[in-house]
Specification:
Chain lengths: ~325, ~250, ~300
């Protein structure tokens, strides 16, 4: 099998991504490991968004809603467990938990249900309406989280002890990084398989020409809805990990600014490229760390960079390095 | 008389004050090529859209394959076996020629929501798709991006996609559009052999092709069918000549 | 109780009209140029900051108001000429990203110049104080002035669109973008004018609302998102839809926040009533939006296919 340029870039990125935190561990710089973990989590959120945005062509400006749902799943379940307070007593008992796997399952289920509801309404629209409506629904959830006092409202919710994973000391930075990196790998593998499947062909077809899809007898709406739900679930998983990383969840995770940031990860790295979100998240975190420590208002040059990428370097980092694709 | 595969009865469609389809009745019988002709603005594309299910008629019935399909949308009608091509080629530009046809095969197979097996290696899709490409003469372009092939080749691909659907009837919207004389002759020969696979409702402006291919011709003027008949009957029809305002019929 | 109700009604009218100033510019830009502009909220912010800065510097609110119009319009012109112009033929994703990038630039730039603390705009002397309305309601004169100003702008906008040559070009541009270029209308200039007009309206709204609340970085985005909801409800490209949508949203939001906690208080304890009532109130507009969409997917008066 010949190695094309994109595969080469992807391999280099993967190696660098794993090497950096390992080296940092050797140099006793846990902060860098934390940064790398952040990259992994943001990349995962981006992989979720990329599914509908890059491959599906749907500009969802409300994915922070799912990121936040994942985060709050972690926060709410953990806080109930740590306070020894059940979430619900009747008609049946639901207690909290500090086990990540259970939290992830809850995050996946809740986000899927919310995405199903939101998608069923928003995917009937297209173009600008879709963008505005996904933004509006995410705002709705954001305002709800702010005004619901039980879970901290605007101040957010702390997770005093990081949740547990069998066989792992999750408080150890490199162990938690490894967990996130493996989860990212699984999600990326899943995404790659999905795109190459029949479903992926139909999704990309719906992006390019919905009229033709209809004419061959496949309803774009149903394809997009399934893609939307899957993408929400992936982003929610990232949100749950993020809450555990920071041991904190707040409505900021649900804000439109967060939705914009997730989009930035995808765009900077390259829309519709498998490793795009990883490249984009890494670039963003590096910029935040390097520029941010030098200048408080680092998001201004970030904005300028983003403008330049959008106006002149459409393919993002991976696109620029790897060149044009042969065919989808 | 064999039962019509497709029949329109008293189809009417109005847009504000414009009567685009005026009590249109016509049918498509097995094994035939039924051409639909008429001057520009006659309402041919509106009629095609109503048959395909893209717009809803105000009144009238459409029957396809023994079933009344008024309430079915375009996706459902396509799945029932009505394959339509577009006047302006409607393809997936980033997909290869082969992928475009494979997508149609995927729809026919009914297995669209499959998430794990890679599609490009799936012989059950690739082989029939390649067969269709060979039929239209595009096999050597299989791996090229649809955006990179010539206009004529795109019309061929449009045809291949329709073939891949294994339809019960074809709805062809100006397949000769933009083709030079060579391409038109080849396509005419191709369509001639196609009628045995499934009947064709052919909307065309190219009169040579129409007269060479059509078993019956219906003439649409201002939304109304003014005449339906064989090539000779239409050729000799005074109303038709007048409708074309002296255009060579 | 009546005076409380009247007060909320007037507040609804005020918030609806201010929202109309935002939404009308946004819907015009979308209708005429086919462009979605997330940076519209930044222009609102620019207007507020310009007003506050000039008012503080000169001591005159009125000069501040003029400054807000000019600054917002100027910012609009510059942004249109150098960035927005390149986006007309791009897909919506590019437009969203580029204008989001502009938000970052405007927000951080403003924070850099003015700092993170809010500025305060004081009401001009002749408009301070309250007036007594039916029901013994003491209502701030300034708010009444804003309502009147908002109504005047609405009338002016309808006249502009309906009765002037510019208005004809705008309406023609909304109907068929390609055609008006072919007819010899200077597209570049028309687009810049439309964008600047929208920007000025946003800046004006920013100055007005900044006076009643405060002037701070990020003040534009919540209003922007509400304006989106308005456009979705009212239909893209329709000024009439923007007005009706704005009033609907303004009333739903203000009256909802006022009435819902009260309604829940009839059968719940006060703290739960407030909690659930306000949470539901904050979601109410979006629920209304979802309902409208369900019934009319292209908005109440949508012109865009």
């Amino acid at each position: 099998m010949t190695m094309n340029r994109e595969t080469l870039i992807n391999t280099i990125l993967a190696i660098a991504f794993v090497a950096v935190p390992v080296i940092a561990m050797g140099m006793n710089e846990p902060f860098i490991i934390t940064l790398a973990t952040k990259v992994a989590i943001f990349a995962m959120a981006g992989v979720g968004l990329n599914l509908v945005l890059g491959f599906g062509g749907l500009v969802s400006f409300g994915h922070a809603a799912f990121f936040g749902i994942g985060g709050y799943a972690a926060g709410i379940l953990a806080s109930h467990a740590l306070n020894y307070e059940p979430i619900m007593e009747s008609p049946f008992l639901i207690e909290g938990t500090t086990q990540m796997i259970v939290i992830w399952i809850v995050a996946l289920i809740v986000s899927a249900l919310v995405a199903l509801a939101i998608g069923a309404i928003t995917l009937r629209t297209s173009g600008v309406y879709f963008i505005m409506i996904t933004l509006a629904f995410a705002q709705m959830i954001y305002y709800f989280a702010i005004s619901w006092p039980a879970y901290g409202g605007e101040d957010g919710l702390s997770i005093y002890v990081r949740n547990g994973f069998p066989g792992l000391n999750t408080l150890d930075p490199i162990s938690f990084f490894a967990l996130c990196a493996v989860m990212l790998g699984i999600v990326m593998l899943f995404s790659a398989i999905l795109i190459r499947s029949r479903f992926g062909l139909a999704l990309q077809g719906a992006r390019q020409n919905p009229q033709r899809m209809t004419a061959v007898g496949i309803a774009p709406f149903r394809i997009r809805l399934v893609a939307f739900v899957i993408s929400a679930m992936i982003t929610a998983l990232a949100g749950a990990l993020y809450a555990d990383l920071n041991r904190f969840v707040s409505p900021t995770m649900l804000s439109w600014h967060m939705s914009g940031e997730i989009m930035i990860f995808v765009i900077l790295g390259g829309v519709g490229r498998l490793f795009g979100p990883l490249a984009g998240a890494a670039l963003y975190i590096i910029l935040e760390h390097l520029l941010g420590s030098v200048w408080e208002f680092w998001q201004l040059p970030l904005g300028v960079l983003l403008l330049i990428v959008v106006l002149f370097a459409r393919g993002g980092l991976v696109g620029v390095l790897a060149g044009e694709r042969k065919h989808a | 008389m064999p039962d019509a595969i497709l029949s329109l009865s008293h189809i009417t469609k109005q847009f504000g004050s414009l009567l685009a389809s005026d009590d249109v009745t016509l049918d498509l019988r097995p094994g035939e090529i039924h051409a639909l002709i008429g001057p520009n603005g006659a309402g041919k594309s509106t009629l095609i859209k109503q048959i395909a299910g893209e717009i809803k008629s105000d009144s009238g019935d459409i029957h396809f394959n023994g079933q009344q399909i008024n309430e079915l949308d375009a996706v459902a009608r396509s799945r029932m076996g009505l394959a339509r091509t577009f006047q302006v080629s409607s393809l997936m530009p980033e997909f290869s020629v082969l992928q475009n046809v494979m997508l149609a095969r995927q729809s026919v197979s009914g297995k669209v929501f499959r998430f794990f097996r890679p599609v490009l290696g799936d012989k059950s899709l690739v082989e029939p798709a390649m067969a269709q490409l060979e039929r239209v003469g595009l096999a050597n372009r299989a791996q090229m991006r649809a955006a990179d092939i010539s206009h004529g080749e795109r019309r061929q691909l449009e045809m291949a996609v329709a073939l891949a659907l294994e339809p019960k009837a074809f709805l062809l919207d100006e397949p000769m559009a933009g083709m030079g004389p060579e391409g038109s002759k080849r396509l005419t020969g191709f369509l001639d052999s196609l009628r045995t696979q499934a009947p064709i409702l052919l909307v065309e402006h190219d009169m040579d092709a129409v007269f060479a291919l059509a078993d019956r011709i219906s003439v649409l003027v201002y939304g109304r069918i003014i005449a339906t008949g064989t090539v000779d009957e239409i050729r000799g029809n005074e109303d038709v000549k007048r409708a074309y305002l002296g255009e060579e019929a | 109780m009546f005076s409380l109700f009247l007060e909320q009604l007037l507040n609804s009218l005020q918030s609806g009209l201010m929202l109309f100033l935002m939404a009308s510019g946004l819907t015009l830009v979308f209708g005429v140029m086919g462009l979605i502009n997330l940076a519209h909220g930044s222009l609102y912010m620019v207007g507020a900051f310009a007003c506050a800065a000039v008012a503080a510097w000169t001591g005159s609110f009125w000069l501040g108001l003029v400054a807000s119009l000019m600054a917002a319009a100027l910012a609009g012109v510059l942004v249109e000429m150098f960035i927005i112009r390149r986006l007309y033929n791009r897909d919506h994703l590019d437009q969203v990203l580029a204008t989001f990038a502009l938000i970052l630039v405007f927000s951080e730039g403003t924070r850099w110049i003015f700092g993170s603390f809010p500025l305060f705009l004081s009401v001009p002397d002749i408009l301070t104080g309250t007036v007594i309305l039916p029901g013994a309601l003491e209502y701030p004169i300034f708010r009444l002035a804003i309502i009147i100003a908002g109504l005047l702008v609405a009338v002016g906008l309808f006249l502009l669109i309906g009765k002037t040559r510019l208005g004809v070009r705008i309406r023609a541009g909304e109907a068929d973008r390609g055609m008006i270029a072919a007819l010899g209308v200077n597209i570049d200039r028309l687009y810049t004018v439309v964008f600047a007009l929208g920007a000025a309206l946003a800046g004006l709204a920013g100055a007005f609302v900044g006076t009643t609340q405060s002037v701070q970085v990020g003040m534009g985005e919540p209003v922007l998102i509400l304006a989106f909801v308005v456009i979705v409800i009212g239909g893209i490209g329709s000024i009439k839809g923007a007005l009706i949508g704005s009033l609907l949203v303004g009333f739903t939001d203000t009256m909802g926040r006022f009435l819902l906690p009260h309604a829940f208080a009839t059968f719940l304890d006060p703290s739960s009533a407030t909690a659930i009532g306000s949470a539901l109130a904050s979601m109410l507009i979006y629920i209304v939006m979802a309902l409208v969409l369900f019934l009319r997917p292209s908005g109440l008066f949508g012109t865009e296919a």
